[in-house]
Amino acid sequence: MSEKAEEKQTPPRAPSLDDSINLTEPSSSTDANDIVPGSDGVTYGDLSSLRHVRDSFPIASFLVVFVEFAERWSYYGTANIYNNYIRAPLPRGSTTGAVLKADRSVGIAGALGKGQPTSFALRTFNSFFVFVTPILGGILADTLWGRYKTIMLSSLVCLAGHVILVGSAAPSALSKDGVSLGLLVLSILVIGLGAGCIKSNVSPMIAEQYQGKMHKKMLKSGEEVIVSPEVTIQSVYLWFYAAINFGSTGAISASFLARDHGYWVAYLVPTLIFVLVPLVLMAGKNIYVVTPPRGSILLETFRVIGMALAPAWSWNPVITLRNVRKPHFWDPAKPSVYKAGHVPSRITWDDEFVGEVSRTVSACGVFLFFPFFWLCYSQIDGNLGTTAAAMKLNGTPNDLIQNLNPISIIILIPIFDGLIYPFLRRRGINFSPIKRIYAGFLVAGLAMVYASVLQHYIGIKSPCGPHDPALCTHPHDGSPEAGTPWPADINVWVVSGPYILVGIAEIFASITSIEYAFTKAPSRMKSVVMSFSQLQTAIASAINFALTAVNVESKFVWLYGSFAIVSWIVGTTFFIVFRDLDRREYQLNAIGRGQRQGFAGETPEMTSRVAPKAEVRQSTSEKP
Predict the structure, then answer these.
(1) pLDDT, position 152
(2) Taken in order 548, 553, 557, 563, is the CA torsion positive or negative?
(3) Count of CB atoms within 10 A of residue 419's CB?
(4) At residue 580, does pLDDT exceed 90?
(5) What is its main location (predicted)?
(6) Short-list 486, 517, 551, CA closest to 199
(7) Distance from the first to the final alpha carbon of the chain
């Protein structure tokens, strides 16, 4: 027997994170009259008998929402028109990418003329890079600068990238071979660094402005309800996502600005919008709830995982997996299982921190399925824009159609938040995060089926057949239309279906993933966990990049169809693997809310290290 095993005590064990307890019902270890951890007098019996409602939001949340609105306007107002900017050549008679007024009914704005493969590669890299850099932003915020300072400094970096992008589209740059492309790549790198570091910190910062506890409240109607932080955070992120999509509609103006006035003007407007980001951050500096950086938390997290994994490890992966899934897997890292005075010196945490790490690992496991969801989403970013270019535009810019995605989300979020979700709660239907994410996978697959069928009919209707219908032009036979686009006889608005369906899928899956990352991550690691959830988009971009050979119009039918099947299979697997987490939802969310308890061998120095508090610059107890 090892020395470590000899040191362990065997007292009766309290219910832990690893116990599958349904906290909406009393069980062998809980009573209906027991108080839910972290709540203000709410019992387990109340959880199952009273309706749950959301609380009001503090004013600081709305300031952070505006920051995200302006940042997303600037990002989507540029990225959404990259496809035509890179793919299509300068229109006839143009030095800026603008289309002559006489050609606007069928003409498409363009500049670099590098074709679909180059456009796809650069756009995919942009998506990959902007979702890799959140890892850096999360580490800087959680260990060094804190979220507020990280967002402020990153916004200045991002602003510099936008200035470079405007320069890339200047007529003088477009007239010189290679200059615009080089500046574009540089701007993608700089904007990606700044925007990525902002992304990993804005999401947790907006929700941590809410500091309320679960409590009971009597409505004017006489109904007693539970004011639930979980429902409040769900609502916060619904409206946060609405702000993202309000900002992304900036691409509507960008499409027309590029077509009518050229790309330097189209890129200048988002740059001016972005100037507001650091200004708003400075204006709200004194009222934000700020979580200070922890310093060594990542190192300690890896130590906890290493101590728990050491006795479970085997060269046989099946045995390792079986050991990892055992109820007492995390016990070797808990200081409470050691005798007083025998706690290993490398343990600088308490049992609560081990529970937080366990919860973090569980959340990160959920996110690992998301790359296959984002593969479906990635199609609305460019490939469906190329699909639209092969249809009758009737004066509509082809890259304008993708704005139906954010518009549909903006319209649907109030419906979900005010009608659908409250209706389900009143009926006692637990539409939990795991179920919502699964629904998102199913709807995303349906969107890809729609796109596949549509692309099939475009191939039939196009005068040039299924091979590159977006490049089909009238023959040079001396007619006035010679060389102009010759689209399939299908109205471009038919392509709206996938954009709307993907929007619904985002409400189910994407918003819930943000909510899940915030509620399941320890307060000291929220930025890192949020960045890990966003990293899955980068992984999806890498997978998509590996599929460059099939990201051509002639293979779109099979590409879309394959993504649909993958989304349904992966989504179903996800639900089977994680459905048990539904029963532990409140238990997982309660970890870290209660007062920390001391443990054998704990010193005052260790206590101060494991329990940093969020710094409240100004009280947010009063609701606006």
Answers:
(1) 92
(2) positive
(3) 10
(4) no
(5) membrane
(6) 517
(7) 60
Question: Nearest Cα to 380, choosing from 370, 388, 391, 372?
Answer: 388
Q: Give the domain 58-293+356-589 fold.
A: Growth Hormone; Chain: A; (1.20.1250)
Distance of CA 607 to the CA centre of its chain: 34
Positive or negative: CA dihedral 355, 137, 581, 217: positive
How long is the chain? 624
Residue 330: exposure state from Cβ atoms within 10 A (0-12, 13-18, ≥19)? buried
Q: Give 308-331 pLDDT, tens digit per residue.
A: 888 888 888 888 888 887 878 888
SS3 state at 111? strand
Report H helices in 368-472: 371-378, 383-389, 404-415, 421-426, 433-461
Among the ranges given (372-386, 449-463, 513-527, 568-582), the one the predictor scored with the smallest mean pLDDT = 513-527
DSSP labels, 157-202: HHHHHHHHHHHHTSHHHHTSTTHHHHHHHHHHHHHHHHHHHHHHHH
**Helices marked H in 80-114 — which ranges?**
82-87
How far apart are the C-alpha atoms of 278 and 148, rounded to whole Å?
Answer: 11
Look at the block and give the residue holding tokens 């238990």.
587
Residue 611: its pLDDT value, please?
A: 37
Kindly give the interhelix angle for 147-168 and 263-274, rounded to the nearest 10 degrees.
Answer: 160
Tell me what the mean pLDDT of segment 402-415 comes to: 87
- Round the CA-based radius of gyration of the chain to a whole number and report it: 26
- The pLDDT, as a whole number, for residue 382 is 67
596 phi-psi bin (left φ>0, alpha ψ -120 to 50, beta other): beta
CA separation for the pair 469, 487 (Å, rounded)? 7
pLDDT score, position 529: 80
CA distance 68 to 230: 22
Domain regions of the chain by residue span? 58-293+356-589
* pLDDT score, position 472: 80
Confidence label for 12 from pLDDT (cuts 50, 70 and 90): very low
Model pLDDT for residues 68-101, shown as the tens digit of each residue? 888 888 888 888 888 888 988 888 888 888 888 7
3-state secondary structure of 64: helix
Q: Angle 309-366-230 (CA atoms, 0-180°, nearest 5)?
A: 110
